[in-house]
Automatic annotation (TrEMBL):
Cited InterPro entries: GNT1/Glycosyltrans_8, Nucleotide-diphossugar_trans
Residue ranges of the region described as Disordered: 1-29
PANTHER family referenced in this protein's UniProt entry, alphabetically: GLYCOGENIN SUBFAMILY MEMBER
Record's compositionally biased regions (Pro residues): 1-21
Domain of life per record: Eukaryota
Organism: Guillardia theta
Protein name: Hexosyltransferase
Length: 230
Protein backbone atom coordinates (compact mmCIF):
# COMPACT_ATOMS: atom_id res chain seq x y z
CA UNK A 1 0.00 0.00 0.00
CA UNK A 2 1.20 3.60 -0.62
CA UNK A 3 2.71 5.32 2.39
CA UNK A 4 0.35 7.37 4.48
CA UNK A 5 0.30 11.04 3.60
CA UNK A 6 1.98 13.31 6.10
CA UNK A 7 0.24 16.19 7.84
CA UNK A 8 -0.78 19.06 5.55
CA UNK A 9 1.64 21.99 5.41
CA UNK A 10 0.83 24.84 7.76
CA UNK A 11 -1.11 27.73 6.24
CA UNK A 12 0.94 30.76 5.18
CA UNK A 13 1.26 33.48 7.81
CA UNK A 14 -1.27 36.31 7.56
CA UNK A 15 -0.09 39.45 5.80
CA UNK A 16 1.23 42.20 8.06
CA UNK A 17 -1.28 44.90 9.03
CA UNK A 18 -1.24 47.91 6.75
CA UNK A 19 0.79 50.90 7.79
CA UNK A 20 -1.04 54.08 8.73
CA UNK A 21 -1.98 55.94 5.56
CA UNK A 22 0.28 58.76 4.50
CA UNK A 23 0.81 60.76 1.36
CA UNK A 24 4.11 58.96 0.77
CA UNK A 25 2.26 55.75 -0.11
CA UNK A 26 1.54 56.85 -3.65
CA UNK A 27 -1.95 58.31 -3.78
CA UNK A 28 -2.50 60.09 -7.08
CA UNK A 29 -5.66 61.95 -6.03
CA UNK A 30 -5.66 65.71 -5.62
CA UNK A 31 -8.24 68.12 -4.25
CA UNK A 32 -9.31 71.71 -3.94
CA UNK A 33 -10.09 72.36 -0.25
CA UNK A 34 -11.62 75.16 1.80
CA UNK A 35 -12.62 75.58 5.45
CA UNK A 36 -16.08 76.31 6.87
CA UNK A 37 -15.18 77.29 10.43
CA UNK A 38 -18.37 79.29 11.03
CA UNK A 39 -21.85 79.36 9.51
CA UNK A 40 -21.12 82.50 7.51
CA UNK A 41 -17.93 80.94 6.20
CA UNK A 42 -19.90 77.84 5.20
CA UNK A 43 -21.71 80.03 2.66
CA UNK A 44 -18.36 81.42 1.55
CA UNK A 45 -16.92 77.90 1.21
CA UNK A 46 -19.58 76.98 -1.33
CA UNK A 47 -18.90 80.16 -3.32
CA UNK A 48 -15.13 79.65 -3.18
CA UNK A 49 -15.37 76.12 -4.60
CA UNK A 50 -17.85 77.24 -7.25
CA UNK A 51 -15.41 79.92 -8.36
CA UNK A 52 -12.62 77.35 -8.63
CA UNK A 53 -14.81 74.98 -10.62
CA UNK A 54 -15.71 77.80 -13.02
CA UNK A 55 -12.10 79.02 -13.36
CA UNK A 56 -10.79 75.48 -13.92
CA UNK A 57 -13.52 74.23 -16.26
CA UNK A 58 -12.05 71.90 -18.86
CA UNK A 59 -9.00 71.13 -16.69
CA UNK A 60 -8.08 67.94 -14.81
CA UNK A 61 -10.81 66.43 -12.66
CA UNK A 62 -10.14 66.92 -8.94
CA UNK A 63 -12.20 66.56 -5.78
CA UNK A 64 -13.78 69.59 -4.13
CA UNK A 65 -13.64 69.28 -0.33
CA UNK A 66 -15.03 71.40 2.51
CA UNK A 67 -13.46 70.98 5.94
CA UNK A 68 -16.50 71.82 8.06
CA UNK A 69 -16.65 72.43 11.80
CA UNK A 70 -18.87 70.06 13.76
CA UNK A 71 -20.10 73.13 15.67
CA UNK A 72 -21.92 74.58 12.66
CA UNK A 73 -25.64 75.23 13.04
CA UNK A 74 -26.01 75.11 9.25
CA UNK A 75 -25.05 71.42 8.96
CA UNK A 76 -28.11 70.13 7.11
CA UNK A 77 -28.22 73.03 4.66
CA UNK A 78 -24.50 72.69 3.96
CA UNK A 79 -24.83 68.96 3.32
CA UNK A 80 -27.74 69.53 0.93
CA UNK A 81 -25.95 72.29 -0.98
CA UNK A 82 -22.73 70.26 -1.16
CA UNK A 83 -24.58 67.20 -2.45
CA UNK A 84 -26.20 69.23 -5.23
CA UNK A 85 -22.84 70.75 -6.19
CA UNK A 86 -20.94 67.46 -5.98
CA UNK A 87 -18.69 68.74 -3.18
CA UNK A 88 -17.38 66.48 -0.40
CA UNK A 89 -17.63 67.40 3.27
CA UNK A 90 -15.07 66.36 5.87
CA UNK A 91 -16.44 67.09 9.35
CA UNK A 92 -13.71 68.10 11.81
CA UNK A 93 -13.47 69.24 15.40
CA UNK A 94 -12.63 72.95 15.50
CA UNK A 95 -9.20 73.91 16.85
CA UNK A 96 -9.00 77.27 18.60
CA UNK A 97 -6.12 79.64 19.03
CA UNK A 98 -4.99 80.11 22.62
CA UNK A 99 -4.47 83.85 22.21
CA UNK A 100 -7.27 86.44 21.98
CA UNK A 101 -7.71 88.35 18.75
CA UNK A 102 -7.34 92.11 18.63
CA UNK A 103 -10.56 92.40 16.64
CA UNK A 104 -12.35 89.43 18.26
CA UNK A 105 -13.11 87.78 14.93
CA UNK A 106 -14.27 84.23 15.66
CA UNK A 107 -13.16 82.93 12.26
CA UNK A 108 -9.58 83.97 13.04
CA UNK A 109 -9.73 82.23 16.42
CA UNK A 110 -10.79 79.06 14.59
CA UNK A 111 -8.05 79.36 11.96
CA UNK A 112 -6.03 76.66 13.75
CA UNK A 113 -8.56 74.25 12.24
CA UNK A 114 -6.42 74.45 9.09
CA UNK A 115 -4.14 71.93 10.78
CA UNK A 116 -6.67 69.30 9.69
CA UNK A 117 -5.47 69.82 6.10
CA UNK A 118 -2.47 67.61 6.80
CA UNK A 119 -4.84 64.76 7.75
CA UNK A 120 -6.25 64.50 4.23
CA UNK A 121 -3.85 61.69 3.43
CA UNK A 122 -6.17 60.16 0.84
CA UNK A 123 -4.85 62.95 -1.40
CA UNK A 124 -1.34 63.33 -2.74
CA UNK A 125 -1.66 67.12 -2.94
CA UNK A 126 -4.30 69.59 -1.78
CA UNK A 127 -4.78 73.20 -2.83
CA UNK A 128 -6.33 75.19 0.02
CA UNK A 129 -8.13 78.53 -0.30
CA UNK A 130 -9.87 80.50 2.44
CA UNK A 131 -13.65 80.58 2.22
CA UNK A 132 -13.62 84.34 1.64
CA UNK A 133 -11.53 83.93 -1.53
CA UNK A 134 -12.66 83.84 -5.15
CA UNK A 135 -10.51 82.50 -8.00
CA UNK A 136 -10.86 84.07 -11.44
CA UNK A 137 -8.02 82.14 -13.11
CA UNK A 138 -7.00 78.52 -12.62
CA UNK A 139 -3.65 77.83 -10.89
CA UNK A 140 -3.98 74.17 -11.86
CA UNK A 141 -0.30 73.81 -12.82
CA UNK A 142 0.76 74.24 -9.19
CA UNK A 143 -0.45 70.72 -8.44
CA UNK A 144 2.37 69.41 -10.64
CA UNK A 145 5.14 71.41 -8.99
CA UNK A 146 7.23 70.80 -5.92
CA UNK A 147 6.10 68.18 -3.42
CA UNK A 148 6.83 70.55 -0.55
CA UNK A 149 4.86 73.45 0.84
CA UNK A 150 3.77 76.30 -1.42
CA UNK A 151 1.92 79.39 -0.30
CA UNK A 152 0.44 82.57 -1.62
CA UNK A 153 2.50 85.74 -1.42
CA UNK A 154 1.99 89.13 0.13
CA UNK A 155 3.68 91.64 -2.21
CA UNK A 156 3.73 94.34 0.47
CA UNK A 157 5.94 92.31 2.83
CA UNK A 158 8.96 94.40 3.92
CA UNK A 159 12.48 92.91 3.97
CA UNK A 160 12.60 92.49 7.73
CA UNK A 161 9.90 93.07 10.32
CA UNK A 162 9.51 92.61 14.05
CA UNK A 163 5.99 91.65 15.14
CA UNK A 164 4.16 92.61 18.32
CA UNK A 165 1.91 90.20 20.15
CA UNK A 166 -1.68 90.96 21.18
CA UNK A 167 -0.38 92.94 24.19
CA UNK A 168 1.96 95.07 22.09
CA UNK A 169 5.16 93.31 23.13
CA UNK A 170 7.85 92.72 20.50
CA UNK A 171 8.07 88.98 20.18
CA UNK A 172 9.19 87.70 16.78
CA UNK A 173 11.30 88.66 13.79
CA UNK A 174 10.99 87.22 10.29
CA UNK A 175 12.81 87.33 7.00
CA UNK A 176 11.09 88.52 3.82
CA UNK A 177 10.79 84.97 2.44
CA UNK A 178 8.72 83.89 5.42
CA UNK A 179 6.75 87.13 5.70
CA UNK A 180 5.62 86.71 2.10
CA UNK A 181 3.55 83.69 3.09
CA UNK A 182 -0.20 84.20 3.09
CA UNK A 183 -1.93 81.22 4.66
CA UNK A 184 -5.19 82.04 2.88
CA UNK A 185 -3.78 80.10 -0.09
CA UNK A 186 -1.62 76.99 0.40
CA UNK A 187 -0.58 73.96 -1.61
CA UNK A 188 0.67 71.11 0.54
CA UNK A 189 1.31 67.39 0.79
CA UNK A 190 -0.87 65.81 3.51
CA UNK A 191 1.09 63.79 6.03
CA UNK A 192 0.14 62.34 9.39
CA UNK A 193 3.72 62.81 10.57
CA UNK A 194 3.61 66.53 9.73
CA UNK A 195 0.16 66.83 11.32
CA UNK A 196 1.43 65.29 14.54
CA UNK A 197 4.42 67.63 14.52
CA UNK A 198 2.09 70.59 13.96
CA UNK A 199 -0.08 69.53 16.89
CA UNK A 200 2.92 69.33 19.19
CA UNK A 201 4.15 72.68 17.91
CA UNK A 202 0.76 74.32 18.48
CA UNK A 203 0.72 73.06 22.08
CA UNK A 204 4.20 74.36 22.87
CA UNK A 205 4.42 77.54 20.78
CA UNK A 206 2.29 80.66 20.72
CA UNK A 207 1.03 82.38 17.61
CA UNK A 208 2.52 85.88 17.53
CA UNK A 209 -0.80 87.37 16.39
CA UNK A 210 -3.22 84.73 17.69
CA UNK A 211 -4.15 83.50 14.21
CA UNK A 212 -3.16 80.48 12.11
CA UNK A 213 -0.70 82.66 10.18
CA UNK A 214 1.13 83.54 13.38
CA UNK A 215 1.48 79.83 14.11
CA UNK A 216 2.29 78.56 10.62
CA UNK A 217 4.88 81.23 9.71
CA UNK A 218 7.49 80.11 12.27
CA UNK A 219 6.60 76.44 11.81
CA UNK A 220 7.10 76.60 8.05
CA UNK A 221 10.27 78.64 8.51
CA UNK A 222 11.69 75.93 10.79
CA UNK A 223 10.35 72.67 9.39
CA UNK A 224 8.91 73.19 5.89
CA UNK A 225 11.00 75.73 3.95
CA UNK A 226 8.36 77.21 1.66
CA UNK A 227 8.15 78.03 -2.00
CA UNK A 228 6.31 81.33 -2.25
CA UNK A 229 4.14 81.90 -5.31
CA UNK A 230 2.45 85.09 -6.40
Amino acid sequence: PPPAAGPPPPPPPPPPPPSPPDASQGSSKTAWVTLAATDSYAVGALLALRSIRWACRGRASRDFVILASRELLWKQQLEEEARVEGFLIRWVDPIRSKLPQLDSRNELELGYSKLHLWQLVEYQRVFYVDADSLLFSCPDELFDGSQGFLAGSSPSAPPDVQFNDHLGRKVLRHSAATLAIATCIMILTPSLATHQLLQLYAESAQSFDGSDRGLLLPFVDSFLPPTVVA
